[in-house]
Write a structure and sequence with these properties.
Helices cover about 35% and strands about 20% of the residues. The chain is globular and about 50 Å long. The chain is of the alpha/beta class. Helix 1 links the parallel strand 1 and strand 2 (about 35-40).
Amino acid sequence: MSGRGKLIAVLGDEDTVTGFLLGGVGELDKHRKPNFLVVEKETSLAEIEETFRSFLNREDIGIILISQCLAELIRHAVEAHARPLPAVLEIPSKEHPYDPTKDSVLRRARGLFTPDDLR
């Protein structure tokens, strides 16, 4: 990947992933593995978690965007990720609005600052 930046990976419902793909996010790695997963009703929990873990281990991925409702299903895997890269960001989906109380990154960030630090 010399000379190129890192990719954004996306896990979400069809509408969410399609929006990012239309924005140019979709790529295949040298093994022809995509950097996205469209989760449908038939998609197993094991496949979601396996894909998430594979994204964590890919050197060409710098950010993983995951629908918050999917992150809730594999919360143990999301919480276990402690490295700075790839960054894992929870995003809303069409059917499930964003809930900041469930966001693991936001919970970690709250512990770093006090209200006085932001003044």
